[in-house]
Write a structure and sequence with these properties.
Number of strands: 0
Structural class: mainly alpha
Order of helices and strands: HHHHHHHHHHHHH
Distance between the termini: 39 Å
Mean pLDDT: 89
Low-confidence stretches: 1-31
Largest sheet: none
Radius of gyration: 17 Å
Helix content: over 70%
Shape: globular
Length: about 260
């Protein structure tokens, strides 16, 4: 239910954005960039929602017909953060950093069942929820620099994508399968895409530039998975490479 609410809010914001987005941070987006932003936001939201609803079915569509329980649970975890990323994209760019704190807090609460299956302590979920919400509140009131929230997205993304074993050990989670840890890496990818977007906005880039940079990061990370991890996990490369091509196209449309 929480995911449905988050997706509805993201969709509503995306529908309203074209009038607002044309003048984000003083730059004309142009038709191609505006379309790329709307398509990319919708694509991320739909992909994430489907993954949350049917993680095993999503894995099956990528050629993994009999995923283990760890992979299915971590796939659901990754889907939740894809929905969160779509919500950040759909938010008013001027308020995106602050709102990302509330989005992260909401996602953590919505993910509590999934994190319970991982074996992580409930206390850490509630502590992080409180931290993210407090940072969001303070940032939106201009009582706090945007950089602490940006750091939260960046550091958690680095941990979940590049330091999976250490991250799982730090939170005392159950042992995860290789495919499960790879799916955890997908959640880290979404967090790093969000971090790239928020960093670019904070540095004064236009919404189009920030969106393009974010998808360039996503494209590089999914291509890395296809080229360095897919074979060992017996995951067909086609799906990840399609995402890499889509990501490159969106990035090009926004940055050209």
């Amino acid at each position: 239910t929480m995911y449905k609410v988050l997706l509805v809010l993201a969709s509503a914001a995306a529908l309203k954005r074209p009038q607002r987005g044309l003048a984000v941070r003083g730059g004309e987006l142009g038709l191609n960039a505006e379309t790329a932003i709307n398509v990319g936001t919708g694509l991320m939201g739909v992909a994430g929602a489907y993954t949350v609803i049917d993680p095993a079915g999503n894995l099956d569509k990528y050629g993994v017909s009999k995923p283990d329980a760890s992979a299915v649970n971590m796939m659901a975890w990754a889907g939740g953060w894809q929905v969160a990323l779509a919500a950040i994209y759909a938010a008013d760019a001027e308020k995106a950093v602050g709102l990302s704190g509330y989005i992260a807090a909401w996602t953590l609460l919505a993910q509590s069942r999934v994190s319970d299956v991982m074996g992580g302590p409930k206390a850490s979920t509630y502590v992080w929820t409180a931290i993210c919400a407090a940072l969001g509140y303070k940032t939106l009131r201009d009582d706090l620099s945007p950089w602490p929230l940006v750091a939260v997205w960046t550091l958690n993304g680095v941990q979940q994508h590049f330091m999976r074993d250490q991250c799982l050990e730090m939170y005392g989670c159950n042992k995860q399968s290789a495919l499960g840890k790879a799916m955890m890496g997908v959640s880290g990818q979404s967090m790093l895409m969000g971090a790239a977007y928020l960093i670019a906005l904070t540095k004064g880039k236009t919404q189009a530039e920030a969106f393009g940079i974010s998808w360039a990061v996503g494209g590089a990370l999914v291509a890395k998975f296809a080229l360095t991890e897919a074979d060992d996990l017996k995951v067909p490369k086609t799906g990840p490479l399609v995402w890499a091509v889509i990501s490159a196209g969106i990035a090009y449309a926004c940055l050209k």
